[in-house]
Write a structure and sequence with these properties.
The structure holds two protein chains of two kinds.
Chain A (H helix, E strand, L loop, with lengths): L1 H6 L1 H7 L5 E2 L4 H14 L5 H8 L1 H12 L1 H33 L5 E2 L6 E2 L7 E2 L13 H11 L12 E2 L9
Antiparallel strand pairs in A: 2-5, 3-4
Helix pairs in contact in A: 4-5, 5-6
Chain B lengths: L19 H9 L3 H23 L2 H17 L10 H19 L10 E2 L7 H8 L9 H14 L2 H12 L4 H8 L3 H18 L8
Helix pairs in contact in B: 1-2, 2-3, 2-4, 3-4, 4-8, 7-9, 8-9
Chain lengths: 171, 207
């Protein structure tokens, strides 16, 4: 062991250089004061952790502290986003609802088609499914096939044609 | 009326150093003045250890302050099983090792100046004039190479070298700080020194 220590003697002398590295003059005069000030302020070091790991959050919080008006603007923006979100959340619901609800007057196995030749107005009538409408999509093909049979997957009523009549002005 | 003779003015005697246990007891009760005294006692040693571990003054400053703050908050859990100094060291060292693991591969050295005494230290002069015959290395270059070599070691190996060869702690004290046995400390020290010798081969000449 003693021999090992001797082998490392030049290294130990070189490492002694580290003892001569000293912080700026007067550094330790303020050190304990800084620590005590942070203790009195209730700082537990989390601020530094946030600043180091989540710099964007730290910048945001700092901006809030510096400009209280920014807090109001941020809160207003959040409220606006919330309102927009609610409005948009309701709109697709109503559209989806109207699409999914089967009409009481629906005729089975048809597609809504307008008949422009009808003198009494615009009539719709079921259109036969032509063979050339077959798709490469197996799901769509199956849907088409089932609609021709008067139903859809899972035994639900298929998409239907609702006959509508409305008079053109002047007729 | 008899006038009292003027008492010759005497220099106030410096207050007797307060016992560490007493300071710890007072600090645990929330006495900030007592804790301030403890900070002043150990600030240099704690800072130096953290600086040698990080090779960065700003990081060492932050870590040292946070270590003292954490120690104050954890004082109630200090049972006195080890000395306050060892316990404080353990907090600082664990904090620093966690920090270094997070900072991995983002090393930035911010080295302190070498004090005036180094230029008059015979060992330092010998290092420049004799130990580096192949390179005209100044103290600053030597300092940079030394810190670079230290940063190449793993955190635990670096810590052992810093505590033993730079700070002068005994194997037993290091074992208490690192919460491992003395044999582990010795083997880590041996391995770390071997690595350092390899890194600094140009600057070392066997005696």
């Amino acid at each position: 062991m003693k021999e090992n220590e001797n082998n490392f003697e030049p290294l130990r002398r070189l490492l002694a250089l580290k003892r001569h590295e000293t912080p700026p003059p007067g550094y330790f005069e303020n050190f304990s004061g800084d620590v005590m000030a942070r203790i009195r302020a209730g700082d537990d070091g989390r601020t530094e952790i946030v600043a180091r790991q989540l710099p964007w959050l730290f910048r945001l919080l700092t901006a809030f502290e510096a400009k209280p008006a920014f807090v109001g603007a941020f809160a207003s923006a959040l409220c606006l986003l919330l309102v927009i979100g609610i409005v948009f959340a309701e709109r697709p619901d109503s559209v989806t609802q109207s699409l999914l609800t089967p009409s009481a007057q629906a005729s089975p196995g048809g597609i809504l088609v307008a008949d422009a030749t009808s003198p009494s107005g615009l009539d719709t009538q079921p259109m036969a499914q032509p063979d050339f409408l077959s798709s490469t999509n197996p799901v769509l093909n199956a849907q088409l096939a089932s609609s021709q049979l008067g139903g859809t997957f899972f035994g639900q009523p298929g998409p239907s044609v609702q006959q509508v009549n409305f008079a053109l002005p002047g007729n | 009326m008899i006038m009292a003779e003027p008492v010759p003015s005497r220099e106030p005697e410096p207050p007797a150093p307060v016992d560490e246990d007493e300071l710890v007891r007072d600090a645990r009760r929330g006495d900030l003045a007592a804790y301030d005294e403890l900070v002043k006692r150990y600030q240099q040693r704690i800072y130096a250890t953290l600086y040698h571990m990080t090779s960065n003054h700003e990081d060492a400053n932050d870590l040292a302050q946070e270590s003292f703050i954490k120690a104050f908050q954890a004082l109630k859990s200090f049972k006195g099983g080890s000395s306050f100094y060892t316990w404080l060291y353990r907090i600082a060292v664990n904090k620093t090792i966690n920090f270094l693991k997070q900072r991995k591969n983002r090393t930035h050295m911010s080295l302190n100046d070498i004090d005036f005494n180094a230029e008059h230290d015979p060992d330092m002069m010998a290092l420049i004039s004799e130990q580096t015959p192949r390179r005209a290395a100044g103290l600053t270059e030597l300092q940079e190479k030394l810190n670079e070599a230290l940063l190449k070691l793993s955190e635990h190996h670096r810590l052992v070298v810093v505590l033993h060869d730079v700070q002068g702690l005994s194997h037993e004290e290091i074992a208490k700080v690192m919460e491992c046995n003395v044999g582990t400390v010795r083997s880590r020290l041996f391995y770390a020194r071997q690595q350092m010798q390899g890194f600094l081969a140009d600057y070392l000449k066997p005696t």
